[in-house]
Amino acid sequence: MEEVRETSPRLKARIAGLFYLLNGGTGFAYSVRSRLVDSSDASTTASNILAHEHLFRIALAADLIGVAAYVVVAGLLYGLFKSVNRSLSLVAAFFSLVGCTIQSSANLFDLAALSVFHPEPSVGAFNAAQSKMMALLLLRQHAQAFNIAIVFFGFYCILIGFLIFRSRFMPRILGALVGLSGLAYVANNFAIFLAIPIPMVLAHLVPILGGIGELSLMMWLLVMGVNTERRRAQADSLAP
User: Fold this and answer.
1) I want to staple 130 with a disulfide (CB 3.0 to 4.6 A). Which of 1, 126, 157, 200 is the partner?
2) Quick one: pLDDT at residue 236?
3) Taking the C-alpha atoms of 197, 200, 202 and 208 in order, what is their torsion angle to the nearest 10 degrees?
4) Does residue 220 contact residue 170 with C-beta atoms inside 8 Å?
5) What is the mean pLDDT of the chain?
6) Rg for the chain, CA atoms, rounded
7) Are 200 and 217 in contact (CB under 8 A)?
8) Residue 125 confidence (pLDDT)
9) C-alpha triplet 45, 47, 50: angle, nearest 5°
10) Is 209 helix (H, G, I), strand (E, B) or coil?
11) Inter-CA distances, 240 with 12, 13, 79, 109, 180, Å
12) Which residue in 25, 34, 13, 33 sits closest to 68, CA to CA?
């Protein structure tokens, strides 16, 4: 029984790392949309999506799988970091789940765009040009909803980074990297919402910072897990 107790947190950490890897479906979906959707040209966007509709639908499914995987990550990380600060870990999980809800709901705009491209026979309110523009507007709304979701994920990364930094069972440098990625997400997207011009150098820096932080966390969870003895000691020190 003692052996199971010792290995369980490390196993949970590695499972979290595995599901973090599955969240790569969101990255795949983002890449596909970036290639097919031209936010300034409705005709080009329509042509691209209709020519690669199967790929577009695969991207939508991959995005949903990625979101589902991230829900699992949020639950497992809550369990790992509640020994550091239960309340803060719960708040972090809440931010993640809100972000997941918004991101998954954003896919409704993609489905709506596909419905515009393939209207019911009884629905003929728009001509071809209007249909293309309507579809593009829906796809733009998906992008806006995704930006909102990223803000919540940014706050999640900030909190998880702080919890890692305060923990005794994961390296502080990892917490700093994850927290920095969260700050980059939040600052970048609030700048977008407030229409604040962002230098291209900084705009390109955001995904780099995000990738370094989150990839580092994923790889650490997969390869190293957590220091079980130190985690138990920290949990015992907080026990009433």
Assistant:
1) 126
2) 67
3) 140
4) yes
5) 89
6) 21
7) no
8) 60
9) 105
10) helix
11) 24, 25, 18, 48, 33
12) 25
